[in-house]
Design brief:
The protein is mostly helical. The protein has one domain: ABC transporter involved in vitamin B12 uptake, BtuC (Orthogonal Bundle). 71% of the residues lie in helices and 3% in strands. The chain is built from eleven helices and two strands; from the N terminus they run H-H-H-H-E-E-H-H-H-H-H-H-H. It has helices at residues 2-32, 39-56, 61-84, 92-114, 139-161, 163-173, 175-180, 185-207, 217-232, 237-254, 263-277, and strands at 129-132, 135-138. The protein has a two-stranded antiparallel sheet. Strand 1 (129-132) and strand 2 (135-138) form a beta hairpin. The two termini are 35 Å apart.
Amino acid sequence: MVKWIQLLVTGITIGSIYSLIALGYVTIYRTSRVVNLAQGAFVMFGALFTFSLLRELNLPYWLSAILGIIGVALVGVAMYLLVIRPLIKVSLVSIILATIALSILFENLALVRWGGYGKTLPAFSGDQAIFVGGVAVFRQSLWVIGLMILVLVGLYLLTNYTRIGKQMTATANDPGAASLSGVNTGRMIILAFVLSAVIGALGGIAITPINQTSYLSGGIYALSGFVAAVLGGWGSSTGAVVGGLALGVIQSLVTGFLPAGYQDAIAYAVLILVLYFRPSGLLGVRSSEGEA
């Protein structure tokens, strides 16, 4: 029993990262209807930027993290202005292909800059584990889970109780009408990319003390976050969290009776079954709704 509970705790931790990545997908999609398959690169760059600032420039951890997040936000803005915005009126397929190409480009740039070996960061509050009935709960795992909850609550409050959040939702629902109402739709889309980049960077910094981050991490996290977003119900913040946690727990529990290499196959098989019987995802909400 202790073994399965330990796997459950591990699954919730990894699932929280998937949830953060899925929330990044949802944040961009709700405002611009863009599916950004380079979302995992934000996670990768958040960790690697912070690593360089901390280890190479010897800056304080907190300052390295802040500057790393700002750097990722700038990457997100540049990605939108230079690549995605010119394609918005072309087709959704063109945007998806462009973001896939960007993801591959970012991976290769990371390989050239940081090499092929994984990088790690110090834990926020030490590496000691808290034992509860024989189950080890690492403090960094609590940071990851708490960060995910904080982001979810923050997005809910932003979307439902702020003028900017409502403008972002209006931009997604009807850009023309929103523009006629005085909403700067271009600015709202840029803000969505900034928020998505910040969320991804936070996730990368939080998970790297547990799992090393390398140039390949971007693509892996992008796929897992996308599956989580679809699994929970595309366009829903709550669904993104439910899908991320479900995917993480499934992958972790599968390793209890199958080799680790099968965890992705089983998880995606579950995704296919869920979408077959419930195409709208577990929560089945509309992608255009304003609620989290």
